Amino acid sequence: MQRVASQFAVLISAVVIVLPGTVAAETDDAIPPSPGVYKGREIAQTMHYLGAPWLTRESREREEDGSTLLKALGLQRGEVVADIGCGNGFYTLKLAKLVGPEGKVIAVDIQREMLEFLKEAAAAEGIKNIDPVLGTVIDPKLPEGSVDLVLLVDVYHEFSHPEQMLAAIRKSLKPTGRVALAEFRAEDPKVPIKPLHKMSKAQILKEFPPNGFKLVEEFDKLPWQHLMFFQRDDATKE
């Protein structure tokens, strides 16, 4: 097991390398530079699309127990879900099946190549309720007040502009909408991920409440990740 963990740690450190010119180009001069460090946390770089096969590796379900994560989301048919940092669709395709044809998944990524991989995978499975969206580093381009659940799996720590992204996500939520945040546990040294790609609960709570969110639920039964649910701090009760 130790050998497997070591190999995994090496692998994840390899696939997060960013090459020039691969992230969606930004033309808005108003986009500020990334702070680099946010509330004491160094911001990680975005994973390059050449690492996409790692996202759908055979061992991912066993290592992360994605089936349990999906059950914990409590999704209903007909809901609108935004999968931000969707990559090549490991969760997107499953989400689309859960919400059914009457629901929709807005799949957001900042790399066109990732979205092309996703489109190919969706077409191969005949899934038609996915809306691919090319976002930017400050805006996931979600329709305001329309999303039931925003899913962030191992991606928030890579947001180069966390405050702008959280503000945009907050605007996209319905009055009872939720954000499901999954991040590798920084508190657990046995989780074979580089520290830069982990977050502690304490750090998460340093970042979300000041940006207009309240913690409403925690799920602690995943092998490697925290799963924390947030709503707008002014959210109405269901």
Describe the structure.
It is a single chain. This protein is α/β, with parallel strands linked by helices and about 240 residues long. Helices cover about 30% and strands about 25% of the residues. It has one domain (about 1-20, about 30-230): Vaccinia Virus protein VP39 (Rossmann fold, 3-Layer(aba) Sandwich), CATH 3.40.50.150. The strands form 2 sheets. It has a 7-stranded mixed sheet. It is globular, with a radius of gyration of 17 Å. The termini are far apart.
SSE map:
Elements: H1 2-15, E1 37-38, E2 41-42, H2 52-55, H3 60-64, H4 66-73, E3 80-84, H5 92-99, E4 104-109, H6 112-125, E5 130-134, E6 147-153, H7 162-172, E7 173-184, H8 201-207, E8 213-219, E9 225-232
Parallel strand pairs: 3-4, 3-6, 4-5, 6-7
Antiparallel strand pairs: 1-2, 7-9, 8-9
What descriptive keywords fit this protein?
238 residues, alpha/beta, Rossmann fold, seven-stranded mixed β-sheet, 8 helices, disordered N terminus
Q: Structural class of the helix and strand makeup?
A: alpha/beta
Count of the domains: 1
The total of beta strands comes to: 9
CA-based shape = globular
Average pLDDT confidence is 88
Q: Could you say what the CATH topology is called?
A: Rossmann fold
Ends distance: 44 Å
Looking at the overall shape, the CATH architecture is 3-Layer(aba) Sandwich
Major sheet: 7 strands, mixed
Spatial strand sequence of the major β-sheet:
5-4-3-6-7-9-8
In short:
With 238 residues, the protein is of the alpha/beta class. It contains eight helices and nine strands. It has a seven-stranded mixed sheet with strand order 5-4-3-6-7-9-8. Strands 1-2 form a two-stranded antiparallel ribbon.
